[in-house]
Amino acid sequence: MDIKVKTENIFIDRSEIESMRHEAGRALDRLWSGKEDMTGWVQAPLNMSEKLIEDILNVADAVKDEAELFVVIGIGGSYLGAKAAIDALPKFEIGIPVRFFGTGFCPDDYLETIELVKEKNTVLCVISKSGNTTEIKAAFETLKPVMAEKYGGEEEAAKRIIAVTDKEKGNLRKEADEKGYVTFEIPSDIGGRYSVFTAAGLLPMAVSGIDIRGLIDGAKEMATSPDWDVDGTDYAVARELLRRKGERIEVMEVCHSRLEFFGQWVRQLYGESEGKEGKGLFPDVMMLSRDLHSMGQYLQQGPGGIFETMVLVDRPFRDTEIPGGDLAGRTIGELNRIMAEAVAKAHAEAGISVIEIHIPELTPRYYGQLLYFLETTCAVTAMLEGVNPFDQPGVEAYKAEMRKLLKK
Ligand code: PA5
């Protein structure tokens, strides 16, 4: 595998990591056994049929041919994977703008999106595994009449609506079948935050021009990598040992502005998978060096309980040199590297554990490796912690309360 993990700067004995490796290996075996609930994502990249990839690419091509705007309605796992990849990755194909909608109840966002849909030739894509999420229902019910009015009735609008949902269950599936929307399936054994390698993630990415085959190839490489259980388990085990030692917060640090939403994707993955039964690390995200100028003080001299995981891109896609002044001749990529090294040193000197994850370049292939690596690492850490990585009863609780309030 091309992702490398460095754990030299953590305050855990190497022997402790070694002694938990076996347990982590057993967790990995359970993930791969096919016997655990909701682990369809483990083999999804390997089992993905050529037909599904072709179907996604064909629909994406049709959307790009006919529309100027692709509005994706989704939230949580039905949104973050696609949004993060679209922000992070270069576009090798011609794509069209993708606007994500339904991620909250902001009236301004509603009014702006309605205007855009009226103005631009639009295809709508609603992504919801359950088909029962209030944010999604509100967004979809708002845009459907806008589309119907624009395209001359419900039937014509339906030709411009795509639904990505469960194969059989839920209201969205029912409606999609009745109205004849183009549909894609989120397999029932894959939860939202592990669904980036399904149509939920891949279709919006393909519409934006991302090379999804490269991404899937990267995930396959990671899934079959013979050395996963060295670097991968190191990271999973280090996180769990740090938690047991009393750390409460893991700050995921990225040094490329294009990776900020990737940080949000990881935050959901870790937060929903591990934060339960009174356990779990609180996952935070920082963009360096920007956030050093707002949170650096707290990290360096605050109350502690925090460790850092830096996700570092070794070779920036492009770079530029500073033409004058003290820094003349230095490249920005070089300064970024030096800044990251300085942070790791300064924070380690303050007693903060710093883990480094290195990705060679921000390409679809390496990014696919990284996503799969983090999904697996997260599941293994949660299993070491002794919680179910694949449920989210806490999220359901708020959804149920909101539905109750709406009935009043
Ligand atoms: O990871 C999860 O399961 C959640 O974040 C869901 O993705 C999110 O709540 C949206 O749910 P749904 O896709 O059912 O609308």
Description:
The chain has helices at 14-32, 40-47, 50-66, 80-88, 107-119, 134-151, 154-158, 171-179, 199-208, 212-223, 228-245, 260-274, 292-301, 332-349, 364-385, 393-407, and strands spanning 4-9, 69-73, 98-101, 122-127, 161-165, 182-185, 249-254, 282-287, 306-313, 354-359. The strands form 2 sheets. The protein has a 5-stranded mixed beta sheet with strand order 1-10-9-7-8, with helices on both faces. It has a 5-stranded parallel beta sheet with strand order 3-2-4-5-6, sandwiched between helices. The chain is globular and about 65 Å long. Strand 5 (161-165), helix 8 and strand 6 form a beta-alpha-beta unit. The mean pLDDT is 95. The protein contains 16 helices and 10 strands. It is of the alpha/beta class and 408 residues long. The longest helix is centred in the C-terminal third of the chain and has 22 residues, at 364-385. Helix content is 53%, strand content 14%. 5-phosphoarabinonic acid (PA5) is lined by residues 75-78, 128-130, 133, 136, 191-193, 272, 392, 395.
The helicity comes to 40-55%
DSSP, total strands: 10
Overall residue-averaged pLDDT value: 95
User: Low-confidence runs (pLDDT<50, min 5 residues)?
Assistant: none
Nearest-angstrom radius of gyration? 22 Å
**Sheet of most strands:** 5 strands, mixed
What binds here, in terms of ligands, is: 5-phosphoarabinonic acid
Strand content: 5-15%
Secondary-structure element order, N to C: EHHHEHEHEHHEHEHHHEHEHEHEHH
Q: Give the overall form.
A: globular
Q: Largest beta sheet: what is the strand line-up?
A: 1-10-9-7-8
With helices defined by DSSP (H or I, 4 residues minimum), what is the helix count? Answer: 16
Which structural class should the secondary elements be placed in? alpha/beta
Terminal residue distance: 54 Å
